[in-house]
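Example (one chain per record):
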Amino acid sequence: MNEQQIPAAFDRDHFATRHIGPRDVRTGVEAAADGTPGDVVRMLAVLGQPSLDALVDAAIPASIREHAPLDLPAARTETEVTADLRRIAAKNVVKTQMIGLGYYGTTTPAVIRRNVLESPGWYTSYTPYQAEISQGRLEALLNFQTVVEDLTGLAIANASLLDEATAVAEAVALMFRAHKTGSKGARGAAGGTVVLDAELFPQTLAVTQGRSDAAGLHVVVADLTDGLPDVEGDLVGVVLQQSGTSGVVRDLRPLVAAAKERGALVTVAADLLALTVLVSPGELGADVSVGSAQRFGVPLFYGGPHAAFMAVRSGLERSLPGRLVGVSLDADGAPAYRLALQTREQHIRRERATSNICTAQALLAIVASMYAVYHGPRGLRAIAERVHDRAVALAAGARAAGLTVVHDTFFDTVRLHVPGRAAALVAAACDAGINLYAPDADHVQASCDETTTPETIATLLGVLTGSTPADAAADGALPAWALRSTEYLTHPVFSAHRSETSMLRYLRALSDKDLALDRTMIPLGSCTMKLNATVEMEPISWPELADVHPFVPADQATGYRELVETLEGWLAEITGYAGVSVQPNAGSQGEFAGLLAIRGYHRSRGDEGRDVVLIPASAHGTNAASAALAGLRVVVVATAEDGSIELDDLRAKLDQHGPQVAGIMITYPSTHGVYEAHVRDVCALVHDAGGQVYIDGANLNALVGLARPGRFGGDVSHLNLHKTFCIPHGGGGPGVGPVAVADHLVPFLPGNPLDGAASAGVPVSAAPYGSAGILPISYAYVALMGPDGLTAATEGAVLSANYLAARLREHFPVLYAGPGGLVAHECILDLRDITKRTGVTAEDVAKRLMDYGFHAPTLAFPVPGTLMVEPTESEDLAELDRFVDAMVAIRGEIDAVEQGRWVVEESPLRGAPHTAGALLSGDWDKAYSREEAAAVVGQDGRATARAATKYWPPVRRVDGAYGDRNLVCACPPVESFAD
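Predicted structure:
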């Protein structure tokens, strides 16, 4: 390695020196003062490569390699980037937000903001697929489910969805699946019609109609004032908004009864805060309830991220999309949490999927759940009553001044009839520091929330009436039919933590149960668990970014617009595409948006018959799920033994389907962690057949600065900002999945959900810019790294993955590799032969790694019986070596089983993980010692784990089958498992 290989900008003040783990990949230090070789030199020696450039040249096909630097601003320091973001944020104008439409001001308790939203113990954790080291976040998500179940009055709720609009769309699909009708409509979808209440929020209608059209589900929007309309075919379902977009609260019982009489299912979109005083959807007879938990302490964030919810009655739980936390038992019979009914994970079902949900909004659901724990049932009801009282005071003052209040029964939103004056009143209120909403020229409305004060109401009445408001009798008691009569949040957790001391300790106790990136490497293949630097995270809590409503006038969000447009431009440069939209609020939604763009393009050219999408057998399962939801037929293309696309089979499929081919979906590098040499050939074959090429950007961390999908054949890609661009996973969300497209697809990027028919692109999220509130994280990352740093990060990821593959190959076969035995940014360890010989499974190794203080690699994907490892560029050499040492020690334990020292069922591998309580038990009857169980010493007596900082799993191995047979998905009574 020589000085010319190290960018001059990489001095010790460069952020990349703290982001990238192996030390001399960016400092230029070849050796320590004592002559010890630097990290990169040592790693390259293991690989037999003379330099980092040589390694990259050998690993990446020359046909796609780019050597020109990215055209991005030079790297800046942390101080400079923070100042830049301060400048951008200052351009936003923060007013009192009374627009409503599903987004409300709220106060995040400081103890929750500091110790959840801003805590790396919570935001750097991964989706809780490995239950034993996820008990804290699982309990928090179970709290969320309990909140939703109690308030909606329904039997079971999921652990969050992406936003309210997509939750309604998911409910529509669920009702079609669950309805008794057997007829089929367009593209194989169930026949009949779902009626959408005209009182649904406008963004909800836009997203639901777009998704339903894509899937061939027939929906109609109707004013339900005079009852349910006649519809085409069977009435499959009805979606009602309990507290409507106009603020009206109606007695929904007659509509629910009429729907039931016609054999339909009913979904009620509800507001969790309102449900502390309003009758629950379950009491109304609803089958499904959906909504947003945003006003439970989650900032506005200019539209997201916010946790949506879905709850269903008994009998529909196996149709519920998304994740579901359940209660089971561990190996000692102790209660333990886990993801229940995991086979419902939609990527497993591929083209048979009913949803493409992959990420959820776990971090935000946890914030909302802790808001409920913090306030308890009485506190929540007090907030709701105060909100209602403010709205009543507003209505009373308006009536006293001679204004017409449209509705007599409302919870938080007051609509006024002001013929021809709506725009003027909105402008006047804006000048007074208050944002209102005008649905048309003759109406204006204001929504009250937790932050609304009497002074706010007085100021607003002064604007609306043109004079100082006089005291007015405020009689706005809700009618008896609207009031809730059932209890909620009766579990002790919602009353046990009234003091901040108790709350703080509860949050700490939960986070201590988990393994997150703040403790250890999380070597998950395909999921890229890299450093989420504190400087990147800090801005999201600034009021100028956190307190902006997504539908404010454009001149109040110029800072956000600058941030979004700049980031979109940077992402376009990095990927080689012409345009980018950050609206998709998850990778799965980015996939969906990309496929809708392809479909829209073909339709615009009159190619209605192009409805086949080719998907390699090795692809991410969400690819097939997204294709099915976009109304496309999936045809599988075979993959070769090395994991690459089988070109002969691709040619055969193109010949077979010809003019029906809409495109192909490929992941690059492949899902198997290899750079496919003939990717340009694949793209050319599909283009010659008239199709488009979708390149899944899940593995972009192996390409940034070295190759661009938009230049080696891609027409569209989605990116995962929560992977390559440092937005943290947060225990399973938030995610952001921007879609990047070539010039001819730009008109089909997602449209603004409030623009209606003015946009050619189908909106895929409720807010125009999706989860805009966390975009400063990726903006900061790109600005801090600069073009050289981003390229070095990719090189570091490739170096680290190949280093691990080389060191582990003699102990665990590496399943796929490219020329010279090199991989991309991840590798697959093949345990299938080991399992045949010894009975030790990949799951045993995954569980045993917990005793060594590691999160497991990706288990059984993309090949059953394997572990997929991705170290990322963020881990230093010491941590990489510690992981290797743990894996080698585990291989020694496997050898001991094979040699007959232990029967596999009585080995530490099958007994893993081991809790401190199990080792302290007086009755130790294992065939191995307590020290071996704890993984602090190996068979040779040498230390194998850091005893002083050892992580102790809180539960033993969880019995998943028991949890599915005995489905409990709410906070269990304390005495439930007393025996």
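Caption: The chain has a mean pLDDT of 92.
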